[in-house]
């Protein structure tokens, strides 16, 4: 056996590192009680994703459920504006900190994702155990093209599309 370079794509060995894929999932705060977690995604900004997130949260709250909204689109103003939050997020890695450092007590948690398939959506898909995603789109060719990429990313991560 040769010395491991940790580049499994060029290695033919059957080592333990190759046989046991490492999960990137993060555990929520130990005191959290979280029912279902749904990501709300879109391929492009401005299609109403934050509005859908807000309306789902408010509707379920009115029906008596405990609901939380995690704003993974930390540079976008929509969720803070919808719920009257005026403070700015200033810490790095804030999305994962929302998951690991906040003691959530919710029946439903909606994760409002930034548009597209960049680093933040990928990080959420990899680190948070999503029960499903809700895809928000509008009838434009460019939007549907990018939404298709987001759907494929969810399928690769084994996250069901629920709406």
Give an overview in words.
This protein is of the alpha/beta class and 163 residues long. The chain has helices at residues 16-19, 49-62, 78-83, 94-100, 119-127, 141-156, and strands spanning 33-42, 67-71, 105-112, 132-136. Strands 2-3-1-4 form a 4-stranded parallel beta sheet, sandwiched between helices. The radius of gyration is 18 Å and the shape is globular. The N and C termini lie far apart (49 Å). The mean pLDDT is 80.
In summary, what is this structure?
By secondary structure, the chain is an alpha/beta fold. 34% of the residues lie in helices and 17% in strands.
Tags for this entry?
163 residues, alpha/beta, 4 strands, 6 helices
